[in-house]
C-alpha cells in the first residue's frame, strides 16, 4: 500500500514538473539582447538597390518639404 | 544620418485628428488600437493646447529595458520596433512607457490582451519589406519607399513634423524665429486679438 502511494506521488510530481519545461522559441536566451528576427535596412530593396545615400537624399527632400517657409519663398 | 524623430508644435496643432486618421488608414490598425492620439490640455479654455502623441522612439527606450522576452530592437535610424512573434502581451512596456504608446488589441474571448501594437514610424517590422506578412503584422513600410510617416505628411497645419531629428529641428527653429512669440504667434493672436483684449481665462478647464 505504501509502495503504491509512493509511486502515485512520484507520478504526480513528474506530471506537475513537466509543465516547468522551458520551451525554446527564440534560440539561446541572452538577457537584455534582442531575441527576434533580423530586419533589413530600408534601402535594401528594389527601389534603392542598397544605395543608402539615395535613400537618405529622398528622405531629406520629404522632410524639407514640411517647411512651408521654404515652399512659399 | 541622425535619428528619426517626431516633433509636435503645440502652437499649430488644431486637434483635427488628421494624424490619427492617417495612421489608422495607412496601417489598417485594428479596432480599439490607436497608435497615435491627440491630447488636449485645458480643453475649451482660452489658451488650450493640443499635442499629437505616439511612440517617440526614445533613444534610451524604457519599453526595451523592461521587456521580459527582449522583443524590441532599434534600427540604425533610431526607430524602435518589435517582433510580434516574440511578444507575449504582458503589458510591462505599457507601464514603462511615459507616452502610453504600446497598445493591445483584444484577442479572443474574455478581453484577453493580444500582442502589443505601437507606432512603427511607418517602418514596418522584422519581415520582408513591403510583404503582405509585414503589412498585416506591423502596417505599411513607408520608410522603405523613401517616404515619411503618414501622420506627419498628412498634417494639414504641419504641426506634426517627422523625419531626421536635425532636419525637423531646423524647420522648427526657423518657424519660431519667423513667428515670434506671444500674440505674434501664428494662429492665436490673429484669431482672438491681442492678450489685453482677451477675457481672463475661467477656472475649471478639463484636461
**CATH first level of chain B: which class?**
Alpha Beta
Work out the helicity level of chain B: 25-40%
CA gyration radius of chain B, whole angstroms: 19 Å
**What is the molecular shape of chain B?**
globular
Total of domains of chain B = 1
In the CATH scheme, what's the topology name of chain B? Alpha-Beta Plaits
Which runs of chain B of at least 5 residues are low in confidence (pLDDT < 50)? none
> What kind of assembly state do the chains in view correspond to?
heterodimer
Q: From the alpha carbons, calculate the radius of gyration of chain A and give it in angstroms.
A: 29 Å
Determine the number of helices of chain A (DSSP H or I, runs of at least 4 residues): 3
From the helix content, strand content and strand pairing of chain B, which structural class follows? alpha+beta
Helix and strand content put the structural class of chain A at mainly alpha
For the biggest sheet of chain B, the summary is: 2 strands, antiparallel
Assess the beta-strand content of chain B as a share of residues.
Answer: 5-15%
How would you spell out the order of helices and strands of chain B?
Answer: EHEEHEEHHHEHH
Fraction of residues in helix of chain A: 40-55%
Mean pLDDT, all residues of chain B = 89
- Taking the alpha carbons of the first and last residues of chain B, their distance comes to 37 Å
Which band does the percent of strand residues of chain A land in? Answer: under 5%
The sequence of SSEs of chain A as H and E is HHH
Amino acid at each position: 500500500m505504501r509502495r503504491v502511494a509512493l509511486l502515485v506521488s512520484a507520478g504526480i510530481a513528474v506530471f506537475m514538473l513537466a509543465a516547468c519545461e522551458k520551451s525554446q522559441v527564440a534560440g539561446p536566451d541572452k538577457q537584455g539582447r534582442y531575441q527576434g528576427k533580423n530586419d533589413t535596412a530600408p534601402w535594401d530593396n528594389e527601389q534603392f538597390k542598397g544605395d543608402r545615400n539615395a535613400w537618405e537624399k529622398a528622405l531629406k527632400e520629404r522632410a524639407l518639404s514640411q517647411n512651408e517657409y521654404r515652399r512659399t519663398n | 544620418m541622425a535619428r528619426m524623430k517626431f516633433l509636435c508644435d503645440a502652437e499649430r496643432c488644431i486637434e483635427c485628428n488628421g494624424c490619427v486618421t492617417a495612421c489608422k488608414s495607412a496601417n489598417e490598425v485594428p479596432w480599439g488600437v490607436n497608435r497615435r492620439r491627440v491630447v488636449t490640455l485645458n480643453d475649451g479654455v482660452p489658451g488650450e493646447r493640443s499635442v499629437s502623441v505616439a511612440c517617440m522612439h526614445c533613444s534610451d527606450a524604457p519599453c526595451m529595458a523592461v521587456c521580459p522576452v527582449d522583443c524590441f530592437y532599434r534600427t540604425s535610424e533610431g526607430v524602435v520596433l518589435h517582433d510580434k512573434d516574440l511578444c507575449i502581451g504582458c503589458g510591462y512596456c505599457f507601464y514603462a512607457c511615459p507616452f502610453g504608446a504600446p497598445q493591445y488589441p483584444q484577442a479572443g474571448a474574455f478581453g484577453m490582451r493580444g500582442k502589443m501594437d505601437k507606432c512603427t514610424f511607418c517602418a514596418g517590422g522584422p519581415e520582408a519589406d513591403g510583404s503582405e506578412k509585414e503589412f498585416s503584422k506591423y502596417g505599411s513600410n513607408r520608410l522603405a519607399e523613401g517616404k515619411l510617416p503618414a501622420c506627419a505628411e498628412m498634417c494639414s497645419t504641419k504641426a506634426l513634423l517627422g523625419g531626421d531629428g536635425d532636419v525637423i529641428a531646423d524647420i522648427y527653429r526657423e518657424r519660431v524665429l519667423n513667428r515670434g512669440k506671444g500674440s505674434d504667434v501664428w494662429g492665436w493672436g490673429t484669431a482672438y486679438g491681442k492678450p489685453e483684449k482677451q477675457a481672463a481665462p475661467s477656472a475649471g478647464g478639463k484636461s
